[in-house]
Write a structure and sequence with these properties.
This protein is α+β, with helices and mostly antiparallel strands. Helices cover 38% and strands 15% of the residues. The protein has an eight-stranded mixed sheet, with helices on both faces. Helix 1 packs parallel to helix 2 and helix 6 crosses helix 8.
Length: 354
């Protein structure tokens, strides 16, 4: 595909959190404001793309790890459908594979070209082809707009106002936008949290078997150990958690019998200050902050469905606000077509241009 790999960028320990401030390297700084987080786990990639070092960079997404850095750094971040791009065999052996590969870019065009070129290398016969998308689609869509977060989580007024602004633009473009209450049960996030903890638990206790190299357990960060301990307390719930999460995939798909897309914030606020997600915080404090920051992104990982974050808004201090569009399995083309349309309707600046 003509890529040159210039190196590995920073990420949080084991990719388990939504900021990139590992103790091993120190914080990765957001090009929009050096005192703010880049998000995570693909925070290093996001910083490089946003600052113009590279046009695109790799990320993988297990709960928002492409979309969250895209939102924090004013980028396009498409999480593809499960199986759209090849994965490591170990990931496909998970009870529910929530992780997929993808990229971050500054423009919709670059994301569209990447996926068109990727299909020349690998096509999953179980998914419809994306093809090369070069312009907006003609079909007008029925969009479910969600402005409220689940579990009574609050988000800032800038985020709420930007959702309504984008919804209005979509209506002006001829799409049907219907505001709805958050459609998924609180139990889903609770189950995902336990499954999230299970990933830390297995790295903590069986890391050598997973990576093939020796791991010093004494060097794990407090957040990783906290997640591992959280799962240990809930380990007997595992069969029920997996059963419910698998069932949710069908519930999620059924939602799109009535709507084409879900419009929501990507994160509950713009990029937080460095240290807000410090991995050495008390676990209960850190975990609550993490869950409050990403109440919209995990559902697509559970269902294996695609979603895209677009930098369609900005808060008063100039930081970008990511807006997420999500759809049913295999419908990346629909997301990219709408992204082209919104990029034309609401052009977004690069770092230093806002």
């Amino acid at each position: 595909m003509g890529f040159r790999n210039i190196g590995k960028s920073t990420l949080p320990e084991l990719g388990l959190t939504c900021t990139t401030e590992p103790l091993s390297t120190g914080p990765t700084r957001n090009p929009w404001n050096l005192d703010c987080s880049t998000g995570g786990s693909a925070g290093g990639s996001a910083a490089l793309v946003a600052s113009g070092v590279v046009p695109i960079a790799h990320g993988n997404d297990g709960g928002g790890s492409i979309r969250v850095p895209a939102a924090c750094c004013g980028l396009v971040g498409l999480k593809p459908s499960r199986g759209r791009l090849p994965n490591k065999d170990e990931l496909d052996k998970m009870p529910i594979n929530i992780v997929c590969n993808g990229i971050l870019s500054r423009t919709v065009r670059d994301t569209a070209v990447f996926y068109a070129e990727a299909e020349k290398q690998f096509i999953n016969p179980e998914l419809p082809k994306i093809g090369l998308v070069e312009h907006p689609g003609k079909k007008r869509l029925h969009i479910a707009m969600i402005s409220n977060a689940p579990n009574s989580i609050s988000h800032d007024s800038s985020t709420v106002s930007q959702i309504f602004k984008v919804g209005k633009v979509c209506e002006d473009l001829g799409h049907e936008v219907e505001e709805i209450q958050f459609p998924f049960q609180e139990q889903v996030m609770e189950d995902f949290s336990i499954y999230w903890g299970a990933l830390a638990f297995y790295f903590h206790h069986f890391g050598k078997k997973i990576t093939g190299s020796k791991i010093d357990k004494k060097k794990f960060e407090k957040l990783t150990l906290g997640l591992s301990g959280f799962y240990r307390k809930n380990i007997l719930k595992t069969p029920f958690v997996i059963k419910r999460l698998r069932k949710f995939a069908y519930q999620y798909e059924a939602f799109f019998d009535q709507y084409d897309l879900i419009l929501s914030p990507t994160t509950s606020t713009s990029a937080p200050a460095l240290g807000y997600f410090d991995t050495e915080l008390d676990f209960n404090v850190a975990f609550e902050r993490l869950l409050n920051f990403i109440p919209f992104t995990v559902y697509q990982n559970i269902a294996g469905a695609p979603a895209i974050s677009l930098p369609l808004g900005y808060c008063k201090d100039g930081l970008p606000i990511g807006i997420q569009f999500a759809t049913a399995l295999g419908k990346e083309r629909q997301l990219i077509e709408l992204a082209f349309e919104l990029e034309q309707a609401i052009p977004w600046p690069r770092v230093g241009e806002a």
